[in-house]
From TrEMBL:
Keyword Nucleotide-binding assigned: no
Transmembrane segments: 46-65, 77-97, 103-122, 134-158, 164-184, 205-232, 252-271, 283-300, 306-327, 339-363, 369-389
GO molecular function ontology, one term from the record: xenobiotic transmembrane transporter activity
Family membership: Belongs to the major facilitator superfamily. Bcr/CmlA family.
UniProt-recorded name of the protein: Drug resistance transporter, Bcr/CflA family
Organism: Cytophaga hutchinsonii (strain ATCC 33406 / DSM 1761 / CIP 103989 / NBRC 15051 / NCIMB 9469 / D465)
């Protein structure tokens, strides 16, 4: 299905959907100290609500993949966003950190449908040769979340109360439902051949994972992507607790760092015109590992200060900006059926691995930045090792939606 006459509007709507859940991650970060004080806990414990959100996102991916294929794109999208709204309001009434962690999990379980639907609908509405560009545009809109969310969230929490942050998230989801209902065309028609029984669903997911190209670019991309999640979960602890920056300065730092992520994802649009996605992906992986080694040495020797930390994160997030759109395009390229399930499996794997990595942030010692640096470096090394293994197994036969040549094997 193609709607080329509305492609710009569709791209904007898909970008909005892709941003709903990431916005919910970043929006309340500046309010960590305020929430911790009111709930009588520590910021490290509050950071576990970020990890629970990541886990909810990962599981939600698997839940909605088959639903989006079976019932079409819109009905599951509406249902998930309604769950997101209810959980967001529930967060306002949290009486303890455990309740907040649980509600954040439910919030993510609902909101994750937006990202899965957006990914699947790229292939519904656009031809293969445009997928790289659209994925990069989605990365751009996702990148606007860390650029804007912490600053806005910090202002709302300071001017009103942290609870209003979650009220605003509920209103954003309600706005998304309205826009989708009024302006987004129907995507893929419901596929009644898609079963919702557990055993066939598991068989479908195992079949998707058995594709070497999908496995290679999804799992290696997931470990590279984990550095972003480690950063998000740990940044309030490192910047606010360790370096003692203000909420406003924290928002400014967060915005600056997102420029690397956004800029790299947009640079990718130009790079795919001259280089294959596989080559760009490989280069970014190697750069991330090299940066990790350098900064691990710097951190180990106690030379990390505020500015060195910002530089390290800028390099890592720039690499993620190159890795993520190419990982998505390369992982989904082999599929013409069960695209929703493939997108869900990819999202679950990426976010699930990153979520597990981010849990360690709750154990971080605020007297040192070393745990964050070593965690990010370790995931980068694992990512590169998996990529090298996968490329050897594929023996150079990589199916890719090249931006200028369509679907090719190179």
């Amino acid at each position: 299905m193609r709607h080329t006459q509305n492609r710009h509007l569709i791209t904007l709507i898909l970008g909005m959907l892709a941003t709903v859940s990431p916005f919910a991650i970043d929006f309340y970060l500046p309010a960590f100290s305020q929430i911790a004080n009111e709930l009588g806990t520590t910021t490290a414990r509050i950071s576990l609500s970020v990890s629970s959100y990541f886990i909810g996102m990962a599981l939600g991916q698997l839940l909605y993949g088959p639903l989006l294929d079976r019932f079409g794109r819109k009905p599951p999208l509406y249902a998930g966003l309604i769950i997101f709204i209810i959980a967001s309001i529930g967060c306002c009434f949290s009486t303890g950190v455990e309740m907040l962690i649980t509600l954040r999990f439910i919030q993510a379980l609902g909101g994750s449908v937006a990202g899965v639907a957006a990914m699947a609908m790229v292939k519904d509405f656009f031809p293969p040769e445009q997928n790289h560009r659209i994925f990069a545009m989605l990365i751009l809109t996702i990148g606007l979340s860390p650029l804007l969310a912490p600053s806005i969230g910090g202002f709302v929490a300071t001017a009103f109360n942290w609870k209003f942050v979650f009220v605003l998230l509920a209103l954003i989801a309600l706005f998304a439902i309205t826009i989708v209902f009024l302006f987004l065309p129907e995507g893929q028609e419901p596929d009644k051949t898609v079963t919702l029984q557990l055993k066939p669903m598991a068989k479908t997911y195992l079949s998707i994972l058995s594709d070497t190209q999908f496995f290679t670019y999804t799992i290696s991309g997931a470990f590279a992507f984990a550095s972003l999640f480690i950063y998000v979960a740990g940044s309030p602890i490192v910047f606010i607790d360790l370096f003692h920056v203000s909420k406003q300065m924290y928002g400014a730092i967060f915005a600056f760092l997102s420029i690397g992520f956004i800029g790299a994802s947009q640079l990718n649009i130009l790079l795919v015109q001259k280089f294959s996605s596989a080559s760009i992906f490989r280069f970014a992986m190697r750069l991330q590992v090299a940066a990790g080694m350098v900064f691990s040495i710097v951190a180990w020797n106690g030379w990390m200060d505020l500015y060195t930390t910002i530089l390290m994160l800028f390099v890592f997030l720039s690499c993620v900006g190159l890795i993520n759109p190419n990982a998505s395009a390369l992982a989904l390229a082999p599929f013409t059926k069960n695209i929703g399930s493939a997108a869900a499996m990819m999202g679950c794997s990426q976010i699930g691995i990153a979520a597990v990595a981010s849990i360690a942030v709750g154990m971080f010692d605020a007297a040192s930045v070393l745990p964050m640096v070593l965690s990010m470096s370790a995931t980068a090394c694992i990512a590169l090792a998996l990529l090298m293994w996968g490329e050897k197994k594929m023996a150079g036969k990589i199916v890719a939606a090249d931006a200028s040549k369509g679907v090719v094997v190179h």
